[in-house]
Write a structure and sequence with these properties.
Strand content: 15-25%
Strand order of the largest sheet: 1-4-3-2-5-6
Pfam families: RNase_H
CATH topology of the domain at 88-278: Nucleotidyltransferase, domain 5
Oligomer: single chain
CATH superfamily of the domain at 88-278: Ribonuclease H-like superfamily/Ribonuclease H
Largest sheet: 6 strands, mixed
Region (Disordered): 1-71
Domain RNase H type-1: 98-247
CATH class of the domain at 88-278: Alpha Beta
Biased composition (Basic and acidic residues): 43-56
Distance between the termini: 114 Å
InterPro entries: RNaseH-like_sf (IPR012337), RNaseH_domain (IPR002156), RNaseH_sf (IPR036397)
Length: 279
């Protein structure tokens, strides 16, 4: 009788204990062996689980970082850095020269509404120029040759200003531009189709008209064809500088980076040219 009474009392205690177990979001704790008899402690525990974990230095990312980098988070698809586009950029600088005759390499890069030109000389002068060039200013089939000739003009101005009277060999990879240079040497005044020869703003002469007179009256200049993209270091550097200027006016390269990049690229090309000549 006493045993039966004790068993009945134990059954009632177990039943009452089960009835006291919480029902709802935290009901699985009891099945996992986590008994939280005090409702206050359970509320504290649930609040702790809802809060993001904080990590100490060197212990990996916090829960907040892991959650914020989810598939739908804007941080998971951060926008690329884009520099501010500019209308025109001009860089003229100098690097360490290579001894010997002066060789000047020029090149151009042309896009739909922008153009770029670059030059490298063994005398140390180097630079680039890029700007917007709307299609209505010149015929589309003349844009390339006009930009190539402007690159020659920019390079010759820099070299002859630093070394007046010196002989200069100009290497160009555009045969049409070489054709105009040869005709100008013989006294011709022909210009690319659609190129205007009227005075520019502030009474300036057009750059190709200046180049035509420079070529005609400077007998120390020689012009040589150099095949493009054939591994010639000076030509490759001039091409790279022209494209660098084009990317700047497009807004993909910051203008503030050009004074640092131009001499680095030119110095590397001249060092390779020096090694190739010594081999």
């Amino acid at each position: 009788m006493l045993l039966g009474t004790a068993e009945g009392r134990e059954r009632r205690v177990r039943r009452d204990h089960r009835q006291q177990q919480p029902r709802g979001p935290g009901a699985g704790d009891a099945q996992q062996g986590r008994v939280l008899p005090d409702p206050t402690l359970r509320a504290v525990e649930e609040d702790r689980l809802r809060r993001p974990e904080r990590s100490s230095p060197g212990h990996g990312p916090s829960r907040t970082w892991r959650l914020s980098m989810g598939r739908r988070s804007p941080l998971a698809h951060a926008p690329r850095f884009t520099a501010r586009a500019v209308r025109q950029v001009v860089i003229n600088t100098e690097v360490k020269a290579v001894s010997g005759p002066i060789v000047l390499a020029t090149d151009a890069s042309v896009a739909a509404d922008r153009v770029g030109s670059g030059y490298v000389a063994t005398s140390g002068q180097t630079g680039l120029r890029a700007h917007e060039y709307p299609g209505h200013l010149v015929r589309s089939r003349s844009r390339v040759v006009v930009t190539e000739l402007r690159a020659v003009h920019q390079g010759l101005r820099a070299v002859l200003h630093a070394h007046p009277g010196r002989a200069v060999e100009v290497r160009v990879d555009n045969t049409q531009a070489l054709s105009y240079l040869a005709r100008w040497r013989r006294g011709s005044t022909d210009m690319p189709e659609g190129y205007g020869t009227r005075l520019r703003s502030q009474g300036r002469r057009p750059s190709l008209l200046q180049l035509q007179m420079l070529v005609e009256y400077t007998p120390s200049l020689t012009f040589v064809h150099e095949k493009a993209h054939a591994g010639h270091p000076l030509n490759e550097a001039a091409d790279s500088l022209a494209k660098l200027g084009l990317r700047c006016v497009r807004g993909t390269v910051p203008k503030e980076e050009l004074p640092r990049l131009v001499p680095v690229w030119a110095a590397g090309a001249l060092a390779e040219y020096r090694r190739g000549r010594a081999a």
